[in-house]
Each structure stands twice: as C-alpha cells, then as structure tokens.
Design a protein that fits this description.
single chain; about 575 residues; alpha+beta; 11-stranded mixed β-sheet; 6-stranded mixed β-sheet; about 25% helix; disordered C terminus
Length: about 575
C-alpha cells in the first residue's frame, strides 16, 4: 500500500491511503477490499484543495499524501501501554523488502519470488534482475511518538470530514460508532485508560547518555489537516506560512535549511531526488516554469563556499538513484535528470567561484568538497544460470547478460556532523518541500551527550554508528579515515572507491561487487563543469541520457502518470516535479 499511514490499538486498526489506484498503481483499492468486513477502518484519501476547480484537479491527480507512518501501542510496564511510532521513507507495498546484500538475481526463486518489481522494464520478464531497494526508516519511542499520533488524528479528522465528493467516496463512515458516544470511527487514546498519555509516558533522564531530543516536522497545509489556528497572528507565531485561504506548514524545509546552516564539518545525504534552487540555474527554454525553488542545494553550496573562504575543512556526500524510477528514456524522467544536472552544475560553479576567490583553484577542485554517488550491484551467474541468447538489443536482454542493475535509493535522510539526523518521507524537490503539494512527515533528532559542543571532538553516539553502518553497507569495508568525513583524505578515499566500483560495474567481465557505492556517472571538471563521462553518455544497458534532456514539448493527448507517481501529462501539457 503506497503512501499509507495508520494506527493500531488493541486489535483495532485505522488505515488511510492516497486513492486514484487506477492512476498510481498503488493497489489501494485492493487493500480496501482485503479489509472489508473486518475491524479495520480503512479510508482512501485524495490530495485535496478548496481553491479553484483547476487547483482541485491538480492537487487530486498530480500530488499525493506521501507520509509513511505506522503507530502502535506497546508494553509500558505495570499493565500499561504506550505509543510508539515508525517514520521514514519505506512504503508498505510490493518490492520494498531487501537486505544489505541487495541481491538482483539470487533471490528471484526464493525470498523475492512473489515480491519482484522492476518498473524499468515495460513488463515483467522471467530472468530479468529485480530492482533492489535501499531505504531509511526510524522508530520513535517517547513523547515525540505522540506527535506522530496527533498528526494521524488531524489527518483522519480532515479526511473523514464529509464535504464535497468525500461524502460519496466514504459512504457510511460517519455512521460508525465504535464507542457509542462518538460519530467518528477514530477512538481517542484518552478514552483508553490502559494507554499512557504524552505527559505520563516514561522518558530518560537528562543525565542518561543514551537520551535523545526529537522533533517532528511536516510539509502539509490546512486543506489536508485539522488543528491549524484560524487567527493569522497565531498561525505566524506557530511558524505557519499564510497563503491565500490556506495555512502551510513547511517545517521540513526549515529543518533542512537550519541544519545545513548549523553544520560545521560535513553533511551526508541519501535521497530519492535532488532538485532545487532553480532560481540560480543557467536558464534554458522550459526552465522558467520549473519552480523548484527550495533552498537546500543553494544552502549546501553556500555553506561549502563559506568554509572555503574561512580555510576550514568541510565535505558533502550525496547518494541518489542512478536514474529516477521507471524507464530513463521516457521524456518525463529525462526532464527530471536534466533538472538534477542543472542543480549539480549550479552547486559546483559556486564552489569553483569560491576556490578562485581565495586563490585555491589550482590546489583544490570542487570534488574535494562535494561528491554525488549512486548504488549498484553485479552478481556472477550461478551454475544453472545462462546468458540470454536472444539477439534483441533490449534492456531486458542486456541486463540479464551483464548481470548488473542499480540499487534504487528511496531514502529521505540527512546526517550532519555525526550529531544530528533527519529521517522522513520528504524528497529534496519542490513537491515534498513546498507544503502545498505532497504531504510529508519527518523527524529530526540528536543525543545531547553526543555533540561536538559536549565532546569537543567528533561525537561517537548512535548517529555516528548509524552513518558508519550505512557506509559499511555501501562500501563493503570500514577504514580509519571514515571517522573524519570532513578530511580531504576521507573525501578522496571514498571518491576513489566509488570510481573503482563504477569501473567494476562497467567492466565486460562480470565479478562480484564487494561495495555498492558508485560514483555518479558524470564528469566534473576542475572549473566545476558537469558533463557526460567519456564514452558513457547513457545509462549502461537501459539507455537514457545521463544528463537528461528537455525534449520536444508537444501536446500530449492521453493522461499519463509514471509508476513512481512523479510525472503526469494533463490536458495536453507535460508537468514534471
């Protein structure tokens, strides 16, 4: 169930998903049928707007409810229960289960026999590689879990409120009275005496070295959630953005920007998309209406530039998918790749300019500070495996014979200085950060006893351990220099390993890959120019221009939405975000 979030209390479950299953292929209608006549209250919920008819259509079809949370009650001792929550990027649907090995062929007849999904190919083909999946998710135990529950209650309250077409879509919902005194199916935890309230839940002492401080952030507006104040002054005090007939929570974007500005040593990002700060791109036809104005790429570039001018070490590592989910030859995906390329180009140009200003352009290069990576895998054939002898030069045949495929990065997280982490559902693009488009949720956390200010050195708390475990998974090894990601030694070593792995990924001879981290397949010049790799302008086996292309913008007659739900052709114009 894509874009699902829910709550489970004492054998009662509440689930609601984005609808339009006929467009998004998220099997939400199948899920509703499965839970029919059970104790599960299941609500399909389109992204809504109370603005013009056109805005309603755009919101309901183009954008989604993208939050991914699960909330459950758990043992709190002394015959009491408490709330815990799970927040991150992982969808509860086909093709998401994976292990750190990210097998592409070996598990097709076992673990992934009935859980094999690869939207790069037009149809399932026996013997083709599965699309491995890499994601980040978190468990929240403590008062912050109740904030996740409050978000669910506010979302449920708005979604179940009968207005407009919702009356027809959820017939009978208001007739449910599970407790006899409530017209809504949702039971408030205040009415369940066994469950502790937020102020009653046990929490670690401030002196406990394992204690955490956690905050919950959202991208959402008053069309999709209850509980926003009617008074604009109060809304401003709550840091809500006041738009035309709408209040907007952009706290995920604010959290990213604040964390980047506070960074002193390094930033590590894993994200499904990396597009933004389009106001500073080199202009081309079609760019002016992109509207990818989120500040995150610019803030990172400016942070690096300021560190260069201060003669201080600083590094940024960004892991993204090799290509967006789907066929990279499709024009909507080509435009996403183009915008990603423009984002990279803009950042590297700012870094080179800073190097030139301080006279370091001949000593250092932009990649000494900023590097992009992707993930991929290869597997040698087993004894019973044979090459596809078909003469067809198709992605299906080529990937079978080369025994390689990308590992899809679906993560949405950032680690700063090994002391602060953000994990959630929000991509680094406009639709996730704006608040008026996709609805998102994330958590930001740190351990007060494991900060640079407290330690006066590199913190080695749980966030450090989390990053090191991710690097060990991606690189297949752990080295001493990984303890100082900001050092030039570490930057150059990780970049070298990524280049070695990319060479192994491309090689005509199939060998087992120890590490999965690959350099992103672009060439960054000493002056910050971003171009194609020599001899490799397209993605291996599957094609598609790595740098993307604007394409020929023509009238498109048929409505089309990609399997990732990120592109749409509507009323004769291609919209991609």
């Amino acid at each position: 169930m894509h874009q699902l979030f829910g709550a489970f209390f004492f054998n009662i479950a509440y689930l609601f998903c984005h609808c339009y299953q006929w467009l998004m292929h998220t099997n939400d209608e199948d899920a509703r049928r499965f839970f029919k006549d059970s104790s599960v209250q299941f609500l399909l919920c389109p992204r809504s707007s109370v603005q013009s008819w056109g805005k309603k259509m755009e919101a309901g079809i183009v954008y989604t409810h993208h939050q991914k949370t699960v909330i459950v009650d758990a043992d709190a001792g002394h015959i009491k229960r408490k709330i815990i929550a799970f927040v991150g990027g992982l969808d509860l649907c086909l093709g998401r289960y994976d292990t750190p090995e990210h097998s592409i062929f070996r598990t097709l007849r076992s673990v992934h026999k009935d859980d094999n999904r690869n939207p790069t190919f037009s149809k399932p083909v026996i013997g083709c590689p599965r699309q491995p999946w890499h994601d980040l998710h978190s468990k929240i135990d403590g008062p912050a879990a109740y904030d996740i529950l409050t978000n669910f209650e506010q979302r449920w309250g708005m979604a179940s409120k009968p207005h407009g077409l919702h009356k027809l879509k959820e017939r009978g919902l208001q007739k449910l009275k599970l407790r006899g005194d409530d017209d809504d199916a949702l039971i408030k935890i205040e009415k369940i005496p066994e469950i502790l309230g937020m102020t009653e839940v046990p929490r670690l002492s401030e002196d406990d070295k394992e204690a955490w401080d956690i905050q919950v952030f959202r991208s959402i507006d008053s069309h999709s959630v209850q509980g926003f104040p009617e008074d604009t002054g109060e809304a401003t005090r709550m840091n809500l953005v006041c738009g035309k007939n709408v209040l907007i929570d952009m706290s995920i974007h604010a959290a990213y920007v604040k964390a980047i500005r506070a960074a002193q040593h390094f930033i590590y990002i894993e994200n499904q998309y990396f597009i933004g700060s389009s106001y500073n791109w080199k202009s081309n036809i079609g760019d002016s209406d992109t509207g990818a104005n989120n500040l995150i790429p610019m803030e990172i570039a400016l942070k690096i530039a300021n560190k260069i001018k201060a003669n201080e070490k600083f590094s940024v590592y960004i892991v993204i998918p090799m290509w967006p989910e789907g066929d990279p030859n499709d024009m909507p995906l080509q435009r996403i790749l183009l915008w990603q390329h423009k984002t990279m180009q803009m950042m590297y140009e700012i870094i080179y300019k800073a190097l030139k200003e301080v006279g370091l352009e001949n000593k250092n290069c932009p990649q000494d500070y900023l590097n992009f990576f992707c993930l991929g895998n290869r597997e040698k054939p087993s004894g019973d495996a044979a090459n596809n002898l078909s003469a067809a030069n198709t992605p299906e045949v080529l990937t079978q014979n080369s025994r390689r495929f990308m590992i899809y990065v679906h993560s949405k997280g950032m680690i700063v200085d090994d002391e602060y982490v953000i994990v959630g559902s929000a991509n680094i693009n406009q639709r996730s950060m704006e608040g008026l488009r996709d609805t998102e949720i994330a958590m930001g956390a740190y351990q007060p006893h494991h900060t640079w200010a407290r330690k006066l050195s590199s913190p080695h708390g749980k966030i450090y351990g989390y990053r090191m475990s991710l690097w060990a998974e991606h690189l297949g090894l752990v080295e001493e220099c990984f303890n100082q990601p900001e050092s030039l030694e570490c930057v150059q070593r990780v970049r070298s390993l990524g280049e070695q792995n990319w060479s192994q990924y491309l090689d005509d001879v199939v060998t087992e890959m120890k590490g999965h981290l690959l350099k992103y397949p672009v060439e960054v010049g000493p002056t910050g120019t971003v171009g194609p790799l020599p001899g490799c302008p397209t993605f291996p086996d599957v094609g598609g221009n790595i740098l993307g292309s604007l394409g020929d913008i023509k009238v498109v007659k048929n409505l089309r939405i990609s399997s990732s739900g990120r592109t749409i052709s509507l009323r004769g114009a291609i919209i991609t975000t």
